């Protein structure tokens, strides 16, 4: 039941990308920037609430929080499917993301609690593999559903969600709750949503309003002020949203920075490929989904095949190579792409190169960040890394839409090529950041020891 529910929330990240073009036609008069909030609202909300939701599971019980999260996600999916307007759809996506945030951290805790100690490593790997399965099946399933209507992208969640809640009440274990567990600063979490949302809104509205207009500058100022207040509260609150000790662990900070930049490029890749296939090549949703399968399918295969390689060359070297390969996929598209459909020469090689790159880099950066922390902080660090990925996804979609809408005519082929060059540059930046992971390995261990000593005092 846990794996099925997690599959549902991971699947949602992939199938909505295929529905993006159909959404732009379903709400006439809505700009590309407005429609992009269907993706951005989900990513920003999920990223900002993951840490708080994880601690809520510790405090109120992971079983209770997981079931509530699944119910909220399912009901919000129904609201998305029935949404009469784009604004209602975006609002429902915010609620859907809140449900996913409650569900995801508690799902792993329940899975670990429900198996024998000797089987926990295997169970954890299976939990992680669910994301890979969703990535491989999501584009095709999304294409099939969108052929009928984009509303089916959300309706498909209903039977899974209902089954998860009904069966979960009977079979899920009851891990002990810890009522005295303090929740992270909720004010900082709200301000984080406000700050990130303002940044994304500023990027999206800049081309339409003007980069020096009062509205755009106000959004950027709001993002800056909100971020500053979040940082200050993290330094002064007894239970901060982000523990300062995590930032002082240089291995974690560097891995998180590289992951953030890499994830911006990753979001650009996902949405740009789906839009290119449908808007430039004229593919239907199903053909678009099939065209996107090779890249996601190679990610789990590459990740598993390279698990011994990381021990030989180190996480820094492997993540650097992966980031460079990912960037090479963008360079290929920017130089080879043609408005005439030529999948075997244009998109397929880029998907293969990029999929291998993601398989080498993404999991390695996540693991490098988590393992650089003391055991007591690993869960919080993992939540922060996943939150960083979600926030970066929102920024990536905003960057792509900004580039596409800044061109004339909108979404011209040259605009896509410009976005791929930007993504290639981001991939190179991630590679540079990953290269420092090897150099920071020993210093990261020193930082971990310092955290231990600080806690002992």
From TrEMBL:
Main location: membrane
Domain of life from the UniProt record: Bacteria
One Pfam assignment: MFS_1
Signal peptide: none
Location of the protein in the cell: Cell membrane
Keywords: Membrane, Transmembrane, Transmembrane helix
Residue ranges of the TM segments: 32-53, 65-84, 90-114, 126-146, 152-172, 184-204, 210-231, 252-276, 282-305, 317-335, 347-370, 391-408, 420-439
Residues of the Major facilitator superfamily (MFS) profile domain: 1-442
Topology versus the membrane: Multi-pass membrane protein
Protein name according to UniProt: MFS transporter
Organism: Angustibacter luteus
């Amino acid at each position: 039941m846990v794996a099925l529910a997690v599959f549902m929330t991971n699947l949602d990240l992939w199938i909505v990308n295929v529905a993006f073009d159909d959404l732009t036609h379903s709400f006439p008069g809505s700009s590309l920037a407005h429609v992009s909030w269907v993706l951005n609202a989900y990513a920003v909300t999920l990223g900002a609430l993951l840490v708080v939701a994880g601690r809520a599971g510790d405090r109120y019980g992971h079983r209770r929080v997981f079931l509530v999260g699944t119910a909220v996600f399912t009901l919000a999916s129904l609201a998305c499917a029935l949404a009469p307007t784009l604004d209602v759809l975006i609002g429902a996506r915010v609620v859907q993301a809140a449900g996913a945030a409650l569900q995801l951290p508690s799902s792993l805790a329940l899975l670990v609690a429900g198996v024998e100690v000797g089987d926990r490593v295997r169970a954890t790997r299976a939990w992680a593999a669910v994301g890979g399965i969703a990535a491989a099946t999501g584009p095709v399933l999304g294409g099939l559903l969108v052929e009928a209507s984009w509303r089916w992208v959300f309706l498909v969640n209903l039977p899974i969600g209902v089954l998860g809640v009904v069966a979960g009440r009977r079979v899920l274990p009851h891990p002990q709750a810890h009522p005295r567990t303090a929740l992270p600063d909720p004010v900082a979490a709200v301000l984080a949503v406000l700050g990130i949302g303002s940044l994304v809104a500023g990027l999206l509205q800049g081309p339409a309003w003007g980069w020096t207009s009062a509205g755009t500058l106000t959004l950027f100022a709001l993002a800056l002020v909100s971020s500053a207040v979040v940082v200050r509260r993290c330094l002064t609150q007894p239970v901060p949203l982000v523990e300062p000790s995590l930032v002082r662990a240089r291995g974690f900070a560097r891995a998180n920075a590289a992951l953030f930049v890499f994830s911006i490029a990753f979001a650009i890749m996902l949405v740009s490929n789906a839009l290119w296939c449908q808007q430039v090549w004229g593919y239907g949703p199903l053909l678009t989904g099939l065209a996107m399968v090779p890249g996601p399918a190679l990610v789990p295969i590459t990740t598993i095949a390279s698990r011994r390689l990381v021990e030989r060359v180190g996480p820094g070297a492997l993540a650097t190579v992966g980031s460079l390969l990912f960037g090479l996929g963008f360079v290929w598209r920017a130089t080879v792409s043609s408005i005439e459909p030529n999948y075997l020469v244009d998109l397929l090689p880029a998907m293969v190169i990029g999929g291998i790159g993601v398989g080498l880099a993404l999991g390695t950066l996540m693991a490098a960040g988590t393992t650089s922390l003391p055991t007591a902080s690993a869960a919080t660090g993992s939540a922060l890394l996943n939150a960083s990925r979600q926030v970066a996804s929102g920024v990536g979609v905003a960057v792509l839409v900004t580039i596409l809408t800044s061109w004339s005519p909108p979404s011209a082929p040259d605009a896509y090529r410009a976005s791929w060059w930007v993504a290639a540059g981001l991939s190179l930046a991630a590679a540079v950041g990953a290269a420092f992971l090897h150099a920071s390995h020993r210093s990261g261990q020193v930082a971990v020891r310092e955290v231990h000593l600080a806690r002992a005092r």
